[in-house]
Amino acid sequence: ARHRRMLTPAFHFDILKPYMKIFNQSTDIMHAKWRRLTTAGPTSIDMFEHISLMTLDSLQKCVFSYNSNCQEKPSDYIASILLLSSLVTRRPHKLYNHIDWIYYLTSDGRRFRHACEVVHHFTADVIQKRRMALRDLGQNASLKPKQEKTLDFIDVLLMAKDEEGCHLSDEDIAAEADTFMFEGHDTTASGLSWVLYNLAQHPHYQDQCREEIQELLHDRDIEEIEWEDLSQMPFTTMCIKESLRLHPAVTAISRSCNEDVKLPSGQIIPKGVICLISIYGTHHNPAVWPEPEIYNPHRFDPAASKQQSPLAFVPFSAGPRNCIGQNFAMAELKVTLALTLLRFVVRLDKSQTVRRKPELILRAENGLWLQVEPLPAEP
C-alpha cells in the first residue's frame, strides 16, 4: 500500500502527456518496417512479434529514457525480457521445477538466471547513474518535466517520498521498474494485436474508426496523435474496449479474502482463502454480457454502458489493486491504433487459423498473422 501511494504520481496526467511523443515515434518506426515489408503488395505480419518490440521500445524510453533501437537491431536487454516471459510461463508445467535448486540445475533454470542478471544489471546501472545526477541537481530536482528531457519513471521513483519523508530504496525502485517493463509491454501488445484482429474481422467497424481518425487529423500538417485527441475518438475507444472484453490481455487475477465472503448461493468463502477470479470468464458470461462471443462495440456506447455493473468489464482489474498503468496503456493503445488505421488497411490472413492461447497474457497459437496493406497517399 505504501508503494502504491508513492507510485501514483508516476501516472499523473502531467507525467503521461510528454510520453505521447514517444508513443508516436515508436509507432512510426514500426510502420516504417511495415512499409518496407509491403513494397511488393499486401503482406502477412505476425502482430505479436512486431507490436511487442514496439511497446518494449516505448517502455524503455518512458521508464529509463533509453533508446536501444530494439525495433531495428537486437538488444540483449530486450532479448532477456522476452526470454524471461517465456520461461516463467513454462516453469510451472513440470513438478520438479517448483523446487528452486532443482530448477536452477536445468537448462531453462540456467538461462533464467543469466537473463535475470542481464535485466537486473541494466536496471541497477540506470538507477545508480540517475541517483548521482539527481544528487548533483540537489534542491532543484522536482516532479516537473525538464524542457530538454521527458521526466521518466526512474526520475519519479527516485524523487518519491512517503508520508514520513522516506524514499524508496534502490532495490524497491529496480523491482518497480522491472515490473513495469514486464507488465507494460506484453499486455499492451496483446490488447493492440487483438483489436487489430477484431477490426480485420469486421471491416465496416475498421472503416468507421478510420473515418473518425481522418476527420480528427484532416487539417494537420503532421500525422501525430496529441494528448487532447485521446478524448476525441469515441468510436475507436468503444472498439478498443469491446476488444478488451472479448480478448482481455490478462485472463485471470487472484485475491486473498481478508474477511469471510458470502456468495449469493449462501456458501461462504472463508477468510484467508486465495481466490482465482476469471476476467475472461466474466467477460464471456452470457448472464453478464448477452451474446458474449459477438464483437459489438456499441455495448460501450456511454448510454448503454450506464446500465452495466462497474465490475462487468474489468480488463485492468478493479479495486485498490487495479492496474496502476491503465491510463498509460489506453493512451498507447489509442495512439498506435489511430496511426495504424490512418496508414494501413488490416485484413484477415485466411491461410492462418487463430486460436487463443492463455499464457502470462492472452496470446494466439503460432502468432497472430494479419494481412497489412498501405493506404494510398491522398493527393
UniProtKB/TrEMBL annotation:
Keyword terms, alphabetized: Endoplasmic reticulum, Heme, Iron, Membrane, Metal-binding, Monooxygenase, Oxidoreductase
Cofactors named for this entry: heme
Localization per Swiss-Prot or TrEMBL: Endoplasmic reticulum membrane
InterPro entries: Cyt_P450, Cyt_P450_CS, Cyt_P450_E_grp-I, Cyt_P450_sf, Cytochrome_P450_Monoox
Annotated gene: LOC100561551
Record keyword Metal-binding present: yes
Any GO CC annotation of this UniProt entry: endoplasmic reticulum membrane
Statement: the UniProt record of this protein carries the keyword Transit peptide: no
Family: Belongs to the cytochrome P450 family.
MF (Gene Ontology): heme binding; iron ion binding; monooxygenase activity; oxidoreductase activity, acting on paired donors, with incorporation or reduction of molecular oxygen
Protein name: Cytochrome P450 family 4 subfamily F member 22
Organism the protein comes from: Anolis carolinensis
Binding site for heme: C323
Taxonomy, superkingdom: Eukaryota
